[in-house]
Fold this protein.
Amino acid sequence: MKLTVPTNWDDNLIPSLEKPGVRSVYGKFSSDFFGGGRPSYILKKLSHKQVSNHIKLIQDADLEFEYLLNSACMGNRE
């Protein structure tokens, strides 16, 4: 089984993910063009530089990074 786990954008998280079975890490900006499944006010605010550095650490740990594209919430009118 290969796992894809979420990031909380804490660089100290990455060494704990370097275990057998973990293949990739996913995450997203708090606010972007696509929106997402969670309200942006509860997500950590990050600069492009912080995101880039975190993704580099993920890749240096031999893990893949996947950008999360959730659909916008339509209030059950989908």
About this structure: The first strand starts at residue 3 and ends at 6. The chain has a mean pLDDT of 84.
